[in-house]
UniProtKB/TrEMBL annotation:
Species annotation: Rotaria sordida
Protein name, per record: Lipase domain-containing protein
Example of a GO biological process term: lipid catabolic process
Places the protein is found: Secreted
One function term, GO molecular function aspect: lipase activity
Length: 363
């Protein structure tokens, strides 16, 4: 494998409008180089362009005039100035035989996202919904811009750059992590990210073999379209992990009517627990609540799990909410293998008191 990197940092500076204009020139130079390589025997079908931000659109311009280009990977393609562009002026699935896109800082046109939110390729990956990444906080666009400007005004330029581009750069980190990750890094077709979080989208079709992998190992023979996945919350790799759907079945026969609270699950052999539901989730007698979670390491065996519960006080100070709760069973679906496991409480007193936890074993 031969790797060619393109450094156009001299033309990729402020003002942004000039950088956008320079993309056409950079693309022409790259296309000229690739054509020269093709003229001496290289196959365009075996060429793979990877571009971040404006670089994704540069790759588009190259592919537009280079027939049968094999693949383009667009890493959070730039959004500003490209929402109103015609298809020939931005990345599109027609620019190569296979175009895969990772969205990490997208926002609707009326907001200040640095990436492009709309689908652009044969397959479009939306980690954590495609806008706010967990290691960057929940703010995007204008709020991050204000924070960055605050740092610049105090001459903290380096930290300003990190703040300004955190979500936008996440696509690069995820793609890099995908090359050698021990995780399959599967993504799943779904109507929207909220539905994916709620555990409503757990399969890739008739066979797990159709599941698409984000990043380097993405394939045109796997599931295409709009796909969703989660990433881990650590700043350092790994960013990619293993998806599970956890379903909690509340008991029907308890006198307790409802409660709210923070609920976490910990798999056997796992060092850290994973958050299932926050303090805003209302649990009712007989209710069934599901959530998709991500863990860094897949358990070798699934024989027991641990559920913890902490009652929410909130604005009502917990009035009318039970101080303990009983889950009659917990069902865990391994979304990679589509294997399901049912767990039941090991205690004769299955109530989980606020601030405590309970072990469940296979049943």
């Amino acid at each position: 494998m031969n790797v060619i990197t393109v450094d156009w940092s001299g033309g990729n500076q402020f003002p942004y409008g000039q950088a956008v204009a320079n993309t056409v020139i950079v693309a022409a130079v790259i296309r000229q180089l690739l054509q020269a390589i093709i003229n001496v025997g290289a196959q365009p079908q075996q060429m793979h362009l990877i571009g971040h931000s404006l670089g994704a659109h540069i790759s588009s311009y190259v592919g537009r005039d280079l027939p049968n280009l094999g693949r383009i990977s667009g890493l959070d393609p730039a959004g500003p100035d490209f929402y109103v562009s015609l298809i020939p002026d931005r990345l599109d699935h027609s620019d190569a035989l296979f175009v895969d896109v990772i969205h990490t800082d997208g926002a609707p046109r009326v907001h200040s996202g640095f990436g492009h939110l709309e689908p652009l390729g044969h397959v479009d990956f939306y980690p954590n919904g495609g806008s706010a990444q967990p290691t960057c906080g929940s703010n995007t666009g204008a709020v991050l811009l204000q924070s960055a400007w605050s740092l610049i005004s105090t001459f903290n330029v380096a930290n300003a750059a990190d703040t300004f581009a955190c979500n936008h750069m996440s696509a690069v980190y995820y793609y890099t992590d995908s090359i050698n990750t021990p995780s399959p890094a599967f993504a799943y077709p779904c109507s929207d990210y909220k539905s994916f979080e709620q555990g409503l989208c757990t399969s890739c079709g008739s066979s797990p073999n159709q599941c698409q992998r984000i990043g380097y190992h993405a394939s045109p023979s796997k599931a295409l379209g709009t796909l969703y996945l989660m990433t881990l919350h650590g700043v350092k790799p790994p960013h990619l992990g293993f998806h599970f759907r956890v379903t909690l079945e509340s008991d029907m026969n308890d006198n307790e009517q409802q409660t709210r609270g923070i609920i976490k699950v910990k798999f056997d052999e796992q060092e850290e627990d994973a958050s299932l539901f926050d303090q805003n989730t209302l649990l009712k007698r007989g209710s069934i609540n599901s959530k998709t979670i991500l863990i860094a390491n897949k358990p070798k065996t699934l024989k027991k799990i641990n559920i913890s519960f902490k009652k929410s006080l909130g604005f009502s100070l917990g009035i009318g909410l039970a101080d303990q709760w009983n889950f009659r069973s917990v069902i865990v679906l391994d979304m990679q293998s589509n294997s399901s496991y049912k767990f039941c409480p090991t205690s004769n007193s299955p109530m989980i008191k606020s601030g405590s936890n309970l072990t469940y074993k296979l049943c």
